[in-house]
Description:
Helices cover about 55% and strands about 20% of the residues. By secondary structure, the protein is of the alpha+beta class. Strands 1-2-3 form a three-stranded mixed β-sheet. The longest helix has about 30 residues, at about 15-45. The two termini are about 30 Å apart. About 10% of the residues are buried.
Amino acid sequence: LGEYSAIGAAGILSFEDTVKLAAKRGEIMNEVIKKLEDLLRFILSEIVESGQDISIRTIEKADTIILKVKVADGELGKVIGKNGLTANAIRGVMQAAGVKDKLNVNVEFVD
């Protein structure tokens, strides 16, 4: 959000407009994050048997979204796959999903 402060401090936008712009960015990011979480949850639910035990914690750092995934006990192996192939495929899909919004999307699997 530093860029918004700079815009306001430079007088490019009024304080009120700067606040509105930052708020709108927050709304848009929330929508994008929700879509990313929904996509990841769908992918995982097709892999694991206990879809209701999928937990996704989202961390936003600048233009990077980190999705920390936890699944039911005994299900993580299915998500990781042989030699990590399934996990890497999931990461690839999620990174591609973030490209349109110019986001770097990382998926971490938590035991």
